[in-house]
Amino acid sequence: IPNGWISNCSNSYGYLISGNVNLDGQSDHSQTNITFRRNLHEPEATEIISPFEDGSYYYIANGIYDILYEANGFIPLAQTVELFIHTTLEDVSLDGGDIIYLSGQIGGTLAGNKTYHVVEDIYVDQFDQLTIESGAELLFYEGTKITVHGNINIAGNENEHVSFKPIIDFRDPVNWAGLTLYGDNHEIHYF
Predict the structure, then answer these.
(1) What CA–CA distances, in Å, run from 50 to 11, 22, 56, 57, 172?
(2) Cis omega (within 30 of 0) on the bond before 166?
(3) Where are the alpha helices (DSSP H) in 122-170?
(4) Cα distance between residue 72 and residue 24, in whole Å
(5) Each residue of 65-123: pLDDT tens digit?
(6) CB neighbours of residue 78 within 10 Å
């Protein structure tokens, strides 16, 4: 509890929430944005805070919240928690790695073990090939899709699948428009 705060205070307006967020390989964690979005108790509310340099943070909450942790150059993380008592949240670590945004015509290779955000429809031209390596994750924004007129090789393996998922906007997944394949020269493994 921060110095000067009352340790045994409880009221119906809010509870003390504390936690730690760490940026992998960094000593200063204060560049993290922590977004608290209350979904239950009305009214819905959204507030963004930043932790101290050591990664610790405090917040006053009452309700069910979606919490989003994000920082430039790090892969974001989201969680939903019920905050109806004083709570210390589990430590959160953000792994380094930039998000790669995709839109329009694509071909070549999407490297494995990376996260790709499909922000607009993507397509593989008739004479192109797209290889997606094992461990790649494609997150699709609302209404986006992939259309393949050429060839696609989804090269997942038993231990590392390739995944296509709707992006999560806090708790609510969006609707993406799917995958359309034309032709018959595609290889799909562990998708």
Answers:
(1) 25, 12, 9, 7, 24
(2) no
(3) none
(4) 12
(5) 989 898 888 888 888 899 999 999 999 999 887 778 899 999 999 999 888 989 899 99
(6) 15
